[in-house]
Amino acid sequence: MSRRIFVGVFEDEADVIAAADASRAQGFAIVDAFTPYAVHGLDRAMGLKPSWLPWACFGLGAAGLAFATWFQFWTTAVAWPINVGGRPWNSLPAFVPVMFELMVLCAGVGVVVTFVIARRLGPWRAPEIPDLRATHDRFVLVLDGGASDPRAVRRVFADCRAVAIEERDVEDRR
Amino acid sequence: MSEHAVSLRAPLITGDKSIAQVTDDVCAPMEGRPTALWWGAFIVAFAVMLLGVAAVSYQIATGIGTWGVNRTVGWAFDITNFVFWIGIGHAGTLISAILFLLRQRWRTSVNRAAEAMTIFAVICAAIFPLIHMGRPWFAYWVLPLPNTRGSLWVNFRSPLLWDVFAIGTYFTISVVFWYVGLLPDLATVRDRIKEGARRRIFAFFSLGWNGSYRTWHHYEAVYLLLAALGTALVVSVHSIVSMDFATSLVPGWHTTIFPPYFVAGAIFSGMAMVLTLMIIARKTMRLENYITIRHVEIMAKLVLTTGSIVGLAYATEFFIAAYSNNPYEQFVFINRAFGPFAWAYWIMVSCNVIAPQLFWFKRVRTNLAAVFVLSLFVNVGMWFERFVLIVTSLHRDYLPSSWADYAPTSVELATLAGSFGLFFTCFLLFCRFLPVIAISEVKAVVAHDRRTFGGGR
Fold it and tell me: What is the reported pTM?
């Protein structure tokens, strides 16, 4: 199934933020924006919710910490206890460094893997990019063409100093 | 917003760059042919690395007996080099993590190269404990793998094992952090290339990045989280390395001051190495507008700060040795400053404590030649710090009959040289094939500068 989208290309981050603001005010559905760097304030203009990844990171870190605590205790005190200089089987203070490191490792690597999966990135993925200059020096705003009036969309884009406005039909994969 | 406060400052990136120029300037060295200077440096670095490969092969084939160590001085050159290289890495993590959390926007010009430096330095460092095992093919014995060879599990109470986990985590997180930072820039480079193998390689590694803002939105969260975790690593990794020494009962090692003292020293030496590399890179790669005198000056101030902390730590060690009334501690410190290795001790003090004090003067901080020379002094001084710390604490122990001397053999010297060769080979390849400046981050800074200061549109 194909669907219609509007692509507005801007030269300045302030323009794309204004266009996103105006589009939302007019009730147009924003598909996505494409920018060469993380434009601050565009998340608010697009009405994005804060990322949920910190929660994933926290959970993964807690899992790493719990695993390291259990594993060190189990290997040293349960599975095969060895007397090292008469120290207690459960030498909890000595386990802290490895607990800490495994927490950081699981949280850090885990959150990146979660991010890659959540955003459907991957080595063999062809980039779906509306304008190649979006990774260089252009800011692109993509609106869903569904019910919007093309003339109204063009007017909003033009008011925000768009350098190119296009209507396209794309394959809908979602 | 604090726009008014910000506008009082000068722009971070000079030359009134547009964001398109940022891409072009940073990609230029990757797209032209390598210069004669690059080839010259690469050939020298590669040759020195081969010397190191030969030395390491020889000592693994023959045994650790090829070193100058003996029963009294069991740790010497090898562990010195290990601690030195791990320390170098810390500045990269400081710049990428702590300075990000502190919103120091100047870091964007140097963080990519500094993180690359971290990774290469940790690789250099990791080689030394492997060689030190004598039988490096058994290196996997340090991992907690179920086995039938003796004690079932590794000893989690040993600081040497903590080191394995600390270095392993540090290396992994550094690589991941670096790669995540590179992602948008790899896509930028990919979209500049029409076709061919180079495009396919960049397309593979850029994971289909398309600049989607919904992705950027999560990306920012991931970057912040990695910065927070990296901050914890800056403090923890060298603390754990210092515990290799501090948990022993050797006078000169057995002190609680070690973790903070090692961390400050690590950042000190690493920042000096960043300065050394960046002063060369900005000149040879024509990045003067991105890595400005102001960047150099800020880093020189960081060298001064951490160098002064290191100086304070040296003084504290002496004071505590005297104040503790422990004759063994007192002997070690007197022996360190006035014994057979006094020359090394005074090289260390002059390079680490006295030389950086020149950075109090703005004229020195803004003079590139002076900063370059002083950064080399700090590199040398911090290598000697680890040497002094390890060798002078060991060579005259409790039993005078076992006192011994230590001098490195040619094999050890060649191994040290080889690690520098490996480091510079990696760094030169990085400069050639990857964007040395974080393009997307600098673009955000440039856009901010242009909004604040105007600029031709």
Answer: 0.92
Q: Which of residues 217-276 of B touch A (CB under 8 A)?
A: 217-222, 225-226, 229-230, 232-233, 236, 240, 243
DSSP3 helix / strand / coil % (chain B, rounded to 5): 75, 0, 25
Phi/psi of residue A141, nearest 5 degrees: -120, 130
Tell me the per-residue pLDDT of B7-63, one tens digit each, with 9 for 90 and over: 456 778 777 788 888 888 888 888 888 888 889 999 999 999 999 999 999 999 999
For residue B142, give the nearest of B118, B124, B128, B160 by alpha carbon: B160
Answer whether A43 sits within 8 Å of B440, measured CB to CB. no
How many whole angstroms separate alpha carbon B48 and alpha carbon A45?
55
In contact, B98 and B104? CB cutoff 8 Å: no
**Which has the closest alpha carbon to A168: A26, A43, A31?**
A31
What is the rounded average pLDDT for all residues in chain A? 88
Contact list in B for residue A135 (CB cut-off 8 A) is: 184, 187-188, 190-191, 209-211
Give the Cα separation of B252 and B398 in Å (integer). Answer: 12
A65 touches chain B (CB under 8 A): no
ipTM: 0.92
